[in-house]
Amino acid sequence: MADSRFPQRVFGVGTEPDARFTLANERTFLAWIRTSLALIAGGVALAALDLPLQPGLKLAAALVLVVSGILSPLQAWFGWARVEQAIRRSEPLPGSRLAAPLAGAVAVVGILLLLGFALR
Question: Torsion angle, CA of 36/38/44/45, rounded to 10 degrees?
Answer without folding.
Answer: -170
